[in-house]
Design brief:
- Helix content is 81%, strand content 0%.
- It has one domain (2-93).
- It is mostly helical and 98 residues long.
- The two termini are 16 Å apart.
- α1 (2-18) runs antiparallel to α2 and α1 runs parallel beside α3.
- The longest helix is centred in the middle third of the chain and has 24 residues, at 47-70.
- The protein has helices spanning 2-18, 24-41, 47-70, 74-93.
- The chain has 4 helices and no strands.
Length: 98
């Protein structure tokens, strides 16, 4: 889960940069926290698989953000926005300071 959340925060951070959202710094800080958690719990022999999961989650989340912001289908955009928010709320709930 830490790998997936790291990927999601990476996607949120990059999307925030793209759309000039002031929350980019906050996303970057949370991403760093998940990187630290990931490094603390993933054994060296499993780091490659964790990186794969992180990249997979980043790509999936970036796709949700793209649909949420740029889809011409209003219902699809609303669904993507809701899904992305739910995923980020779950990840935020894993951190002690959330």
């Amino acid at each position: 889960m830490f790998a997936a959340c790291t990927g999601r925060y990476s996607a949120e951070m990059e999307h925030a940069w793209l759309v000039q959202d002031d929350r980019a710094g906050g996303f970057e800080q949370k991403r760093r926290q998940f990187i630290e958690l990931l490094e603390a719990v993933v054994p060296a022999e499993e780091r490659r698989a964790a990186l794969h999961r992180r990249i997979e989650a980043k790509m999936a989340h970036a796709q949700l953000l793209t649909q949420a912001w740029f889809s011409n289908d209003h219902d699809r955009a609303l669904w993507a926005r809701s899904r992305a928010r739910a995923e980020m709320n779950y990840c935020a709930g894993l951190l002690l300071d959330s």
